[in-house]
Amino acid sequence: MKVSRRTLIKAGALAGAAAALSGCTAQPMSSTTAGQAPDTRTFRTACPRNCFDTCGQIATVQNGVLRKVDGDPLHGYTQGRLCLKGYTYVHRNYSPDRIKYPMIQEPRGSGNWRRISWDEALTIIASKILELKQRYGSTLPVALNKYSGNFGILHYAVEGMFQSIGYHTYALGTPCWPAGIDATNYDFGAFVMDDPETMAQSRYIIIWGANPAWNGVHQMDFIRQAKESGAKVVVIDPINTATASQADLFIQIKPATDGALALGMARWIIDNNLHDKAYLNSYVKGWPEFEAYLKKEVTLEWASEVTGVPVEAIVELASGYATIRPSMIWIGYGMQRHTNGGQNVRAIDALGAITGQIGTVGGGVLYGHLATWGFNYHVQSYGPPAGSVGLPDGKGGYTNRTVNMNNFAAEIQALTDPPVKMLWIACRNPGSQDPDAGDIRRAFAGMELVVVADQFMNHSAQMADIVLPVTTHFENWDVNVSYWHRWVSINEKAVEPLFEARSDLQIAWALSRKLNELSPGSCTFPTEGDEEEWVGKEFNDGIYQLFGIRDWRELKERPAKALMPAAIWEEKKFSTPSGKFEIWSDLAAGNGLPPMPTYVPEMQPPAGYPIRFLTPHAQHSLHSQFQNLDYMMQTNPEPLLEIHPRLAEQRGIKDGDMVRVYNDLGEVRLKARLTRTVPVDTVVAYEAWFKDSDFNVNNTVHPIPADMGKVMTGNDGIAFHDNFVEIERV
Ligand SMILES: Nc1nc2c(c(=O)[nH]1)N[C@H]1C(S)=C(S)[C@@H](COP(=O)(O)OP(=O)(O)OC[C@H]3O[C@@H](n4cnc5c(=O)[nH]c(N)nc54)[C@H](O)[C@@H]3O)O[C@H]1N2
Ligand SMILES: Nc1nc2c(c(=O)[nH]1)N[C@H]1C(S)=C(S)[C@@H](COP(=O)(O)OP(=O)(O)OC[C@H]3O[C@@H](n4cnc5c(=O)[nH]c(N)nc54)[C@H](O)[C@@H]3O)O[C@H]1N2
Ligand SMILES: [Mo]
Q1: Which end of the chain is less packed: N or C, by CB atoms within 10 Å?
Q2: Ligand 1 atom with the shortest distance to the CA of 623
Q3: What pLDDT does residue 17 have?
Q4: Smallest CA separation from ligand 1 atom 14, residue
Q5: Last residue within a domain, chosen from 342, 367, 392
Q6: Span of the secretion signal (predicted)?
Q7: Are residues 421 and 525 in the same domain?
Q8: 548 within a domain of the structure (yes/no)
């Protein structure tokens, strides 16, 4: 690797950061004062985790050692601050538990790991790929599962490398947000949204099934700004979350019934003549039909019965939303992880149209966007080698074989012609993040070779034959954007990789080198390159125009914000087939869904398992990341099951007892914590990977699909929260 160019951030900016942080960091700020330590350099990095905030960071490096990570004061969304995970990245970077070298486990699952060289590891892997190709006549027996461990654009090199090897089996879809994406697309015709910073200008904010106090901490700043200007904040959630505790009104809704609440609100709004008739006539398709449905089928009493929300609360919510304007709704990802999740999102979207607020600043309905992701994906631009064979594409050529990421274990085991024999896992931990963890274990066990590229020995790595050590984002170049805010950040390489870690891009170059060495022409991916230059290859004129920059290197001086209207639909020209906001969607109907957001009943508990088991996202972990680190283990040493005292009493469980949570699929054992923040018929454990523990909430989760997602993401979402169990003291 050629020595990277480095940027020295101005001392003034750092002083600003220090002021903004005012003692929030563990490390003394004096080390960054200009002139004191000539070997001190700072770099712009970006947190690449799958999180709303995608924070701009300043990494301080002394003598080649990462000393301190601060928020980038020039990043307008994260504004110089980080979350606890962000501030403690130094410890993660230097964690003694990082995977240091390529290793092989013999036999698989034994824990008997042996260090091998990169060359040995790549030889085993490349030989297997070539052998499978010869045995089956294609590379379809090789499967890739990659998702969100690192969302940096250069990390799409993993997909790129696979494309370059040939047609393969590919986990398509996302476990995260697909139902809501399709819903958004049916209603608006595109996956874009208002600038979330405009929430500060809203007067009434509904946080509907999201928990930003834990999962998107920077948005809480904009919410606080709104509150300081007199805004009211409502939280709708089955759990009295940290976000709910800061709200003016908390509505504890029965899970998966949000559509009924939105419909009840809509009914009250039209009964009180607060709907925007001019807007509905001009910009909305299907209003007469929907109004007729509301008048015929929906009453406040019905909505109250279905949702468990008292009629007075529905009235307070509907009148607040319709009269205190502009009012904004944030639809969380948690609430759409249900069998009717997409349909419920559509019912909520409709409120913004009925009150005529979509397209006004501070009045949107926010879910997520991909408007800033228009990079070249140069890392994915190398096609399969000449003569590659795959699945017939129906046009005389070939294509990859896809399996549903949300039913990965079952689908890869079911494939026969040819079977899947090798797995490559990167930026992904199906061993703890996928439903039906038991079936994932069976699927892994059936492989001839499992390769996991990761930083830590997580549940998936423990089931691998070969682990490959990957870099942290301080050790590689990248560029990062968010699915929530509108900023782009460069990720400069700040320190050299520890031990033998390589980035996913460097691994792709090296594997291509090895494949071509063993079988010339077997991989089209370049065999070497310069990571920093490869960042540049991702930019195009469209991206430059969007961010108002002329050269990507400008991002070394400051992050940039996309130049888009604050309220994205200000012209009320929607991207749907009709050009209107579509309460009535022929596309939805064509896909076998109700054309309008009429109520689709929630899933009922199956016989024998009456208790809902919610497994949302944890405060101090990010999925299977961070909680395993020694300092997180010290603060939060073990998982807890939150149980309402009444349910605990019924089951003879006391605070601190060990509890078995089980259903037909599997079980989880953990300590009971009695709390009135959860509903009586629901238990809650936050998903996370604890060090040296086989705790896994997904042992009990069936891969039940959500109602939407296929159109925009290739496969439907997953109803993680329609998970039912029984509990007992052990
Ligand atoms: N029960 C239940 N299950 C859930 C959810 C839930 O709410 N409940 N939420 C779902 C959601 S929303 C999501 S998005 C998924 C997330 O699922 P994943 O994307 O699998 O989650 P992570 O744990 O963030 O990341 C996976 C791995 O990537 C590794 N990694 C980090 N950086 C790199 C890198 O640069 N290169 C490589 N090769 N690896 C890297 C991390 O160390 C980690 O082991 O989980 C889903 N699973
Ligand atoms: N600290 C931290 N931050 C994260 C993550 C993390 O793991 N940890 N994960 C990141 C990722 S990948 C994602 S997808 C986002 C997720 O961000 P959020 O959408 O905020 O996340 P969740 O925790 O999945 O769910 C939010 C809330 O939805 C509620 N909920 C569940 N079912 C229903 C329902 O039927 N109706 C209603 N109204 N509410 C319901 C849950 O009780 C939970 O409090 O966060 C991102 N940020
Ligand atoms: Mo997610």
Answers
A1: C
A2: 23
A3: 33
A4: 176
A5: 367
A6: 1-26
A7: yes
A8: no
Cα–Cα distance between 216 and 332 in angstroms, integer? 11
665: its two tokens: 């699929």
Q: Could you say which ligand is closest to the alpha carbon of residue 241?
A: 2
Cβ of 147 below 6 Å from ligand 1? yes
Q: Note whether residue 553 is domain-resident.
A: no
pLDDT higher than 60, residue 561: yes
pLDDT of residue 666: 98
- The residue behind tokens 């079936």 is 439
Sign of the dihedral defined by the CA atoms of residues 196, 201, 207, 213, in that order? positive
How far is the centre of ligand 2, averaged over its atoms, from the C-alpha of 324 (Å)?
27
Higher local confidence (pLDDT), 9 or 558? 558
Report yes or no on 55 lying in a domain.
yes
User: What's the CA-to-centroid distance between 455 and ligand 1, angstroms?
Assistant: 12
Distances (CA, A) of 125 to 122, 380, 459, 526, 696: 5, 21, 21, 18, 29
Q: Is the CB of 256 under 6 A from ligand 2?
A: yes
> b/e per residue, 643-662, with b = 16+ CB within 10 A?
bbeebbeebebeeebebebb
Question: Are 116 and 57 found together in one domain?
Answer: no
Report the CATH number at residue 687.
2.40.40.20
CA of 175 to the centre of ligand 3 (A): 7
- Give the domain extent around 51: 12-93
Q: Are 105 and 111 in contact (CB under 8 A)?
A: yes
Residues contacting residue 312 through CB under 8 Å, at least 6 positions apart:
none
Same domain, 200 and 261: yes
Cα Rg for the chain, rounded, in angstroms? Answer: 26
Is there a single domain that holds both residue 358 and residue 279? Answer: yes
Query: Is 157 among the domain residues?
Result: yes
Domain total of the chain: 4
Task: Give yes or no: residues 218 and 313 share one domain.
Answer: yes
d(CA 370, CA 489): 15
Residue 418: give its domain's CATH number: 3.40.50.740
Give dist(CA 80, CA 73) in Å, integer.
4
Sign of CA dihedral 133, 137, 139, 141: negative
Give the tokens for residue 362. Answer: 């501070």
Q: Which of 366, 429, 617 to mutate to test the pocket of ligand 2 (most atoms within 8 A of CB)?
A: 617
309 and 328 assigned to the same domain: yes
Block residue for tokens 């990167």: 426
Determine whether the shortest distance from the Cβ of 335 to ligand 2 is under 6 A: yes
Strand, helix or coil for residue 481: strand
In 3-state terms the chain splits into helix, strand, coil percentages (rounded to 5) of: 35, 20, 50
CB 415 within 8 Å of CB 401: yes
Q: Tens digit of pLDDT for each residue in 58-112? A: 999 999 999 999 999 999 999 999 999 999 999 999 999 999 999 999 999 999 9
Is the pLDDT reported for residue 426 higher than 90? yes
Please tell me if the CB atom of residue 580 comes closer than 6 angstroms to any atom of ligand 2. no
Q: Is the CB of 695 under 6 A from ligand 1?
A: no
DSSP 406-446: GGHHHHHHH--SSPP-EEEEES--HHHHSS-HHHHHHHHHT
Between the CA of 617 and the centroid of ligand 3 the distance, in Å, is 9
Q: Are residues 345 and 277 in the same domain?
A: yes
Position 726 pLDDT exceeds 50: yes
Gap from CA of 51 to ligand 3 centroid (Å): 7
- Point out the ligand 2 atom lying closest to the alpha carbon of residue 337: 32
Q: What is the CATH number of the domain that holds 297?
A: 3.40.228.10
Give the domain CATH number at 34.
2.20.25.90
Using pLDDT thresholds of 50, 70 and 90, give the confidence band for residue 31: very low
What's residue 2's pLDDT? 34
For residues 368 and 546, what is the distance between their CA atoms, to the nearest angstrom?
18
Q: What is the pTM of this model?
A: 0.95
